[in-house]
Q: What sequence folds into this?
């Protein structure tokens, strides 16, 4: 390999996407094909899953066994948890958060969706838009996944019919008008035969759009982060206390929004003190600017008392500050959410306790209707909830910024993560 | 116009640094597990970056089976000196001598499994509450579902069916007394990412990752290094070959690759063309289909 080619490999973009579906909609086949065609499945892995498939009495190679590595999963033939899979093309590296469609679907789908740039939703061409499609789409919308690829699969079983495809597209558009999904791409495919997955299908000359892989490689992701509202949650204070860096004090963290530059006039929350950025430091040296999701260390011109959980922002563009949060909450624990219950709440690098003041309604994830009379939020339920925190938080709506608009709830006593919330 | 986009290596780096800093912030007594292999070298490199210009605020821990490639130990000692951090060595030999573990017998004997006892004893002795490791989700199927922050009960055990959900960048490191966490900042890296990153940042690695001549023998289709404590079975004979390590672990279970790759470009090209996973040569994973899961549940790395 030439040095130029090695260098080419170093300049790939990263796309995180999530897939959801049940066993028979061809999801494993599709992922298997993407991995196999991009040479991401190795011979010894293939050999191992071939043997395991035979042992389970299956007459095809079950690619789910590639990541269903836990003994219980293999014995029961089910996927228990979000599985992460990786593949790369010369253009992009991909991280797939593959979530099972049946068990704990909301919990797993929300987890997988929380970090995704794109959701891949599969529809069986013979069945069209079903309840599960709606549920997946609702969660993609709720979690503000910027892009959705809707793959209408098994086109080979409907004679590659353009009519069937367009009917499903219309159906979906009708339903999706009630959601907040801004970028949807419809792709007719056959995962089994490979039509429009990596190579263009000769069976569907009427389809002029991109293949799935081409779309994944080229979908525009550079504006997925919020580059406008400057937010820097302080994670850790760096104080070397060595002779060479005697008075050095830097605030380490990951940029959660906006672009920071040396010289910027900034405000520190909650103290409200104003200063200027002196330097933005990384191991390689000082930087001219920092933007999400960079991990850097910021030094300020003035000596201000700043600690973990504080936030550096622009004076003219501040987040909301307050102790009352309205969130869409996804519940992830067997014990239901308690009105007046106390939980630990974590937001950016800040932590406090909170009280559940009110459950406003539960959302039916299949019909999207609000159930104002049903306030039982149990495992895998989603509802709108009002929280009161013991400390002020600095937040944005989740719609504006996924980093500063998300929270988790932790149960005291067990220390389990029991809820995931998106601030309204 | 400035393009506000990072390449995949910088995004992975930033994610790992965030996780490492989160450990320093959330835990009282963290430790960095260091084997001398490429993943733990990348981990040490990322930790150095995370706290620069301050020193890494926690020690390194090497669980030493006593069956090492000599080069690894020299490399380890040099790196520790350069980083200015404390090195703690947990000795499997001492664990055996104390009678807390029993040495396996026969030509296929390995101290790989015994490391778990030494690791858990050392964690308890020093009261570490978080152990940072270099494991990646792509390397083994039981690791594919492991969290960044992976909870361990008071016996050091992992309960894969009952893991805490992990969302956004919000990591929950809360625990009760006696429990600890294993933290895996490299979760989203692949083998290729590691090599590209070593190349991009010019990170020094032990010479045995490059091609060299060595006395080796073939067992179950895997080339192993000849060493005084390695017993040959009938029909096995020592040959001299040009080989390199693709992973570095205990010498008794580290398979060597026949290779002429002499620099990082050649290694990257070799990995890109290879059709076998890096753990394909690891005898420790071949003991059964769920070998890794079983070891992990007990408290293995």
A:
């Amino acid at each position: 390999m030439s040095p130029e080619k090695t260098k080419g490999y170093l300049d790939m973009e990263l796309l995180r996407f999530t897939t959801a579906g049940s066993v028979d909609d061809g999801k494993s086949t599709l992922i298997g094909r993407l991995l196999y065609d991009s040479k991401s499945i190795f011979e010894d892995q293939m050999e191992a899953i071939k043997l395991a498939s035979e042992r389970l009495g299956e007459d095809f190679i079950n690619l789910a066994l590639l990541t269903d590595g836990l003994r219980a999963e293999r014995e029961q033939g089910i996927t228990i948890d979000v599985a992460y899979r990786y593949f790369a093309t010369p253009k992009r590296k991909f991280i797939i958060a593959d979530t099972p469609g049946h068990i704990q679907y909301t919990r797993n789908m929300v987890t997988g969706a929380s970090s995704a740039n794109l959701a891949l939703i599969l529809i069986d061409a013979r069945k069209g838009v079903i309840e599960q499609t709606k549920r997946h789409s609702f969660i993609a919308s709720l979690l503000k996944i910027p892009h959705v690829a809707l793959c209408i699969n098994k086109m080979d079983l409907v004679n590659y019919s353009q009519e069937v495809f367009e009917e499903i597209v219309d159906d979906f558009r009708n339903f999706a008008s009630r959601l907040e999904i801004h970028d949807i791409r419809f792709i007719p495919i056959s995962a089994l035969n490979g039509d429009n997955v990596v190579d263009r299908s000769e069976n569907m000359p009427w389809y002029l759009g991109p293949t799935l892989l081409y779309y994944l490689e080229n979908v525009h992701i550079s504006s997925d982060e919020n580059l406008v509202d400057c937010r820097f949650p302080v994670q850790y204070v760096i104080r070397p206390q060595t002779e060479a860096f005697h008075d050095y004090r830097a605030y380490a963290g990951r940029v959660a929004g906006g672009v920071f530059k040396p010289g910027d006039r900034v405000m520190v929350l909650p103290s409200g003190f104003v200063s200027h950025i002196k330097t933005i430091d990384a191991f390689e040296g000082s930087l001219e600017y920092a933007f999400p999701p960079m991990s850097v260390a910021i030094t300020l011109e003035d000596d201000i008392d700043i600690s973990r959980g504080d936030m550096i922002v622009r004076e003219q563009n501040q987040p909301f500050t307050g102790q009352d949060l309205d969130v869409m909450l996804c519940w992830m624990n067997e014990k239901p959410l308690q009105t007046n219950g106390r939980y630990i709440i974590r937001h950016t690098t800040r932590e406090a306790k909170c009280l559940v003041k009110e459950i406003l309604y539960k959302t039916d994830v299949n019909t999207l209707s609000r159930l104002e009379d049903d306030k039982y939020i149990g495992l895998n339920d989603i509802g709108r909830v009002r929280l009161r925190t013991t400390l002020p938080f600095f937040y944005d709506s989740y719609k504006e910024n996924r980093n500063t608009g998300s929270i988790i709830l932790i149960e005291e006593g067990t220390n389990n993560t029991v809820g995931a919330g998106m601030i309204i | 116009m400035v393009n506000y986009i990072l390449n995949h290596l910088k995004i992975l780096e930033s994610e790992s640094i965030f996780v490492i800093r989160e450990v320093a912030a959330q835990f009282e007594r963290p430790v960095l597990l260091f084997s001398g292999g490429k993943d733990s070298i990348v981990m040490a490199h990322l930790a150095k970056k995370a706290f620069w210009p301050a020193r890494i605020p926690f020690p390194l821990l090497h669980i030493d089976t006593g069956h090492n490639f000599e080069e690894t130990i020299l490399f380890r000692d040099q790196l520790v000196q350069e980083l200015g951090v404390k090195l703690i060595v947990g000795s499997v030999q001492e664990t055996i001598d104390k009678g807390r573990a029993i040495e396996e017998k026969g030509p296929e004997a390995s101290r790989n499994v015994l490391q778990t006892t030494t690791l858990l004893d050392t964690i308890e002795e020093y009261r570490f509450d978080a152990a940072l490791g270099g494991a990646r989700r792509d390397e083994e199927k039981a690791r594919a579902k492991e969290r960044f922050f992976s909870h361990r009960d008071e016996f050091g055990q992992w309960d894969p069916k009952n893991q805490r959900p992990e969302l956004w960048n919000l990591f929950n490191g809360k625990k009760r007394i006696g429990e600890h966490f294993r933290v895996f900042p490299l979760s989203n890296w692949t083998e290729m990412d590691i090599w590209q990153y070593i190349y991009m940042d010019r990170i020094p690695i032990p010479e045995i990752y490059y091609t060299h001549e060595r006395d080796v023998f073939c067992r179950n289709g895997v080339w192993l290094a000849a060493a005084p404590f390695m017993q040959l079975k009938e029909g096995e004979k020592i040959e001299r070959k040009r080989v390199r390590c693709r992973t570095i672990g205990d010498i008794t279970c580290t398979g060597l690759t026949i290779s002429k790759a002499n620099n990082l470009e050649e290694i990257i090209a070799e990995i890109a063309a290879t059709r076998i996973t890096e753990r394909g040569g690891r005898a420790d994973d071949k003991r059964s289909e769920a070998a890794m899961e079983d070891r992990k549940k007990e408290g293995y790395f």
